[in-house]
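Ticket closed. Logging final result for PL28 ulvan lyase domain-containing protein.
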Amino acid sequence: MNNQFKSIRVITLSIIALSGAVLSCTDTLEIEAELNSIVDDKELVDSSMLNTKVATSNSVCTTAGTNTTREYTFTGDVNSSINTKIDDRTCTYNYTQLTENGIIKGVYKIKANSNHMDDLQPRIERASPVVSNVKNGNYVSFSGYITINRAGHVAGQNISTTSVKNQSGTYIIQAKGKHSGGGGSKDPAICLLRAVPRFTGNTQSSFDIYREEITTRGGIGLSGRQLIFLKNIPANVRTKITLKTGFELKGVAPNEFLNHYVNITIGTSTYNWDVPEPSKALQAKYRFGAYRVKGGEAEIKWDNVTREFVNTP
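Final structure:
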């Protein structure tokens, strides 16, 4: 947790104490989330994800990997169908491309403690268009092939890999969307696919893919999120992934309602999920690439990515 966060939290809690206010658990979480929004993109909801911005003079940074602007474009970009802009917050590597078995792949490579842009976890990601009209039939989708070379790993933890608080793993794609009624981040993640490495000796040989999902709108940490195991996929094997998030009518009159969903496929396996409290939804969107590396490095490759987008007024 950075010093700026600590200072603001101490000041805030002192003011609360002096005013004699009595806070419920929900109120406390909302204050924590608001304090977290001191960071530039105001998207993190869990203070444990804060990571002090690194100076570009640090040895973790490289000349080739230190981009001076957070977003940039790439000539001949094979992943540009989702978004031409690349959000790069690591000073070790930049987005690049390589050819494997005749397929051009976009390479999203990040290193622990290498974010030179803000106080969040390192990432190289792209954002989808935003479904802003919350209506039946509106959605945004993703389809592509992933090849995971390695994911972030922190050894020696006494935390279950099924716990949200486990430090290992890298997010490969995340559904996001703002909501009404307050609570949590100003731009919250709704569910994220976390790739957690399994080892053969010292080599990452496969990855358990978990869905990190909210249990309530604005949910953070252990009290507001949970990990659901979906599937194990081998390292360095090209695997198809799709994600579709949007809105559809569900139920039968007079109990019909507008549902908010995030449906995912990994290979031939389907994992459909309904977002809690759908009536609070204000939008649907996603980000993909590589995000979060608390130890070591992550290298995620994406190819043949496409999207569909329906946002009927």
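The chain is about 10% helix and 40% strand. No further action required.
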